[in-house]
Please model this.
Amino acid sequence: MLVLRMRVVLLVAPERGNPGWRVALVRYLVAWWPEALTFALIPFTEFEQLGWLRTLGDIWIVICFAPILLDPARRGLHDRVTGTVVVDLPKHVTPPA
Model:
């Protein structure tokens, strides 16, 4: 997200540090668990039988990302669960190494 000059930071950390890999994994799984479940079930069942899971995934995307449009802080469900927020970086700052 550095191309877009955005960064995910923790709200609970005093210096708003990087979330780390565990928080990033939970953030990803909250947002995309239906798709992750679909990929996990593909070896055990036919893809056509997972149509209900694809529909559930579409509904979940709306549930997860609709709060971004309504919240002044623009936090989605995955941000609220993990205690993170996406912030804009200034144009003149170079990304940390």
Notes: The chain has a mean pLDDT of 85. The first strand starts at residue 6 and ends at 10. The chain is about 50% helix and 10% strand.
